[in-house]
Amino acid sequence: MSIEVHREPLYRRYYASYTSGAFCYAICFGFLLIFLPLMIAYNSSSFWIKQNVLYTQPSVAYRYQAVVEIFGTDTTTSYPIALYYSTSSLLNQMHANTLRVPLLQTAEIDDNNDGVVDRMEVILNVPLKPSEQVTGISAVFLHDVKLVDRARYIFDAASHVSFESSTPISQLRVEGDVKIRQSWPLSVMGGYKVPYSGDPLLSTTLTTAVSESETSQYAILSKGAARNCAFPSLFLPLKSDTAHSLLPLSPLFSTPLINSICHVSAHVRARRPPSPGSRSGLPA
């Protein structure tokens, strides 16, 4: 019985002249082996990269939080009127003098059945007195937003609908796209980040210590505008039968007031468009 105590490799060497094809092949292959990976990495725009621009399709869900203000006039006294409604019972108590409870219907629709909401629809029907006429509506809706691609973030955002007309209206239809405005780069390292968990735009657990100014539409939109990730002005009008508007969504349609109608209705549709680098609505 014996054991191995030493091993030496056996080399087989091949020689060729400097003018042979084998020598040229060896030189070219060695060059490609060393420099080709570096050229590919450098031209792929990700060689020692510090910042990059990426497109992603966020997941947006309605938080069932809304603040609605309706403006108009009273034909009997010719005084302006302001009606208020929110999904918070505490805020409704704070605005008890102007509170008007509407019929609020919401729906989240997945058009292509991919498990991600493609559009949200809100239908608002507000009862009116026979002497009341509506000329303007302002509404803020709260959403949960989730980025799931390279940068993983979870935050809340507000979409704003605003319309003013020189003549009374009874119906309003608004459509538009939901897009995220980003002020500075997001980190792609680590797991999900919740940067605004301690400071939501509109808390679900309000206390009596909160003031009207802290929960107004202006305060909600101002807080959202100061964030890195937020919704910009979303709803841009295409046309209006009664007046032009400067709101946020896209097409807009309004119907003049009919005296026999004692309510005003608004239909808001917010779409989640696909990202520029995606196909069929799939994330890029």
Q: What does the model show?
A:
By secondary structure, the protein is mostly beta strands. It has one domain (59-271). Helices cover 13% and strands 35% of the residues. The protein contains 3 helices and 10 strands. It has helices at residues 21-43, 89-94, 217-225; strands at 59-74, 80-86, 103-109, 119-127, 132-147, 153-177, 181-182, 229-230, 250-256, 263-271. Strands 1, 2, 3, 4, 5, 6, 9 and 10 form an 8-stranded mixed beta sheet that branches. A two-stranded antiparallel sheet has the order 7-8. The longest helix has 23 residues, at 21-43.
List keywords for this structure.
mainly beta; disordered C terminus
Secondary-structure element string = HEEHEEEEEHEEE
The proportion of strand residues reads 35-45%
Derived structural class: mainly beta
Could you tell me the number of beta strands? 10
Binned, the helix content reads 10-25%
Number of helices: 3
* Major sheet summary line: 8 strands, mixed
As a whole number of angstroms, the C-alpha radius of gyration is 30 Å
Shape estimate: elongated
Low-confidence stretches: 234-261, 279-284
Oligomer state of the chains in this structure: single chain
- The overall number of domains is 1
Overall residue-averaged pLDDT value? 80
Distance between the amino and carboxyl termini: 65 Å
Would you kindly provide a brief summary of this structure?
The protein has helices at residues 21-43, 89-94, 217-225, and strands at 59-74, 80-86, 103-109, 119-127, 132-147, 153-177, 181-182, 229-230, 250-256, 263-271. It has 284 residues and is mainly β.
